[in-house]
Design brief:
With 416 residues, the chain is of the alpha/beta class. The radius of gyration is 23 Å and the shape is globular. It has 13 helices and 15 strands.
Amino acid sequence: MDTSETGLEKIIVSWLTDHNGYEQETPHAYNKDFALVDKWVERFVTETQPEKVKQSMCFASPSERFKFFTRLANEITKRGVTDVLRKGYKFNGSTFDLYYPLPSELNPSAKVAYEHNIFGVIRQVMYSKVNTNEIDFVVFINGLPLATFELKNNFTGQTYENAIAQYRTDRDPKELLLQKKRCAVHFAVDDCQVWMCTALAGKDSWFLPFNCGVNGGAGNPVIEGDTMTSYLWKDVLTKPTLSNIIENFAQVISSEDKKTHKVKETVIWPRYHQLDVVRTLLNVTKMSPIGRRFLIQHSAGSGKSNSIAWLAHRLTSLHDADNKIIFDNVIIVTDRVVVDRQLQKAIMGMEHKAGLIRVMDDKCNSADLAIAIKGNTKIVATTIQKFPYIVDSVSNLKNKKFAVIIDEAHSSTAGK
């Protein structure tokens, strides 16, 4: 087994191309002017939306093509790569889809569309116009960069910590590819651990563990005959999982500082345990009768609020084997006097339609809670204290099915 850094790179990229249908391009295919792979973008758009290409004349001449990619690059800078992938991009009056979502089993045409997505990888990406620095490899979807990877190997005396140091000291966050939101996530990887950062900021780049955990502790379990971090490419980077993350987890949340009125943008990518808990609960809920209970243990700082928000949003659209919605409402219950601000921010920050969510803040009373539960509000976040006052007014809802997520299930949430 090749234990060098390049060896690990070959193992990962070979798995992606041989077992997961990725396409591989040479480093020259990466366009430094636009920080994307223009040939993949053009191919995807031309194959899937020929009428829009014809109508907008986006590739009719070199100057139009240049305009198309210049505006696309600016759009990624402004909105972030995940938003552009999800919602597309408008040019000369035509809105181009830049990604097709995972299809349901009952939609064969969506399945055909999804197959057109180009999942691509390029090794040794020379991303800069001012130096010859190389990133070990970058993953692209339809030519748009989604994730960068720096690899190290314990056998050569270097670990993920060296990869983190490389991101902090040798990777200029002003470079187009490495600017905030232009890539959804940056991974520091060795053969034992994976760490991630969603916004590079030089020496202030904040990396978090992206590990499976071992018996409730940190790190990754030993796997006989395999690398401890192989879940990264054999699970996370597979097409279904990566699509799931783009469609349901990755996002940019904006929040305004009430004193300075400055808007702060936070790039969100799920940590492995968050992805794991949401996927596990959705799968087991689909197969279980309504009314089953689960207990999720978490540690401080593990991103519990986002895990709750992701789970709540996914439960609202969960279907059974007959393609019927399983739950009418999702109720998030906390035992605090007001709904935790961090939890409020996480729930409201997820993309949603108006009227889908109601947070029972300090301006709401028990009557508002009863109206929300009886109505079509899909997600209701409330304190436990409001419930005793509405027992009678909601007693006739026996035909409705609820998913109840209790934040911090301890003594105060016992009983009925």
